[in-house]
Amino acid sequence: MAELWNDVTAKLGNLAAKWTAYAALGSFILYLFGYLTLRFQLSTYGVATNLDIFDEKYLFAGCRFLVFLAATVPSILILLLVVWAVAYFPWKFVPASFKDRLQRRVSDWCAVPSHLPLLGVALAVLFIQLVLRRCFVLGNLLLRRQLPDEWISSVLLSGDAKLALYFTGLVAGTALTAAILVCVLQRRTATTNASRIWLGLLGFLLAVEFLLLPVNYGVLIATQQLPRVAEVAADQKPAEGESAWLVADSKEMSTYFTRDRTDQRMLVSIPKKDSKIKIVAYDDIFCVLFGAGQAGTGRCPG
Fold first, then answer.
1. Averaged over 262-271, what is the pLDDT?
2. Interacting residues of 110 by C-beta distance below 8 A, sequence separation 6+
3. Through-space distance between the first and last CA atoms of the chain, rounded to whole angstroms
4. Which of the residues 82, 131, 177, 206 has the least number of beta carbons within 10 Å of its own beta carbon?
5. How many CA atoms lie within 13 A of 27 on its CB side?
6. How many Å apart are CA 266 and CA 244, to the nearest integer?
7. What confidence score (pLDDT) does residue 95 get?
């Protein structure tokens, strides 16, 4: 009986030690994702401010990102089911001899140590350069008179459904890189020095893709809504024809974006003690600033 009790105690102790490590790792990941989300959200607005190293808002922002990320999984599964259903019935009518030849050629091609890792690296580089990094051109938008002449600008002004579908595509592209990496590891075909180098590079590019997901979320999705306020400072209402929005709120400063009837725009920072936040509405800020010239985007009226 004593031995059984000792075994149970030892297992519980190991579980508690591992749980502490997992909790610490999970908190770090949430803080990292939250920091990236908020940092690039403010960069998109054009706010020049320093973020505190430790702040609970990173944890909340990281949780929002993970919830949004998890919500894309059903969409990816639906897309996979649609692709499978479209390809299944034509594949049924393909002659068996052709299927066997195709499977042998694919198997032989994948058996070469460098082929799969090199394919994964090539796809990941193209995906990062052509898609994931495009959001970097969307900076300082609150003070710009027009959006950059890039295709990503139309994504920024698209409807919520299209934005969610675009982010689903980003997650699917990252999942494809992860699938290739897992396939190489399971097949254990990376047996040469060159293939191991490509495999290590593939793992690095996968980490880059994962880090760019909260960046894209912060630029394209978290920036859409801004609270419109009744006054910028205590007992200081916006002038006639002027609107003001709360952009950032920290422990010491509150930053507002103001725009008057002549389209004069400013970012104003006010000490927290002098700021009194009275939110009256939430606006699609990019529709307010750029919607009139972007008719037909799906969300903003022309």
1. 85
2. 116, 183, 187, 189
3. 78
4. 82
5. 9
6. 10
7. 84
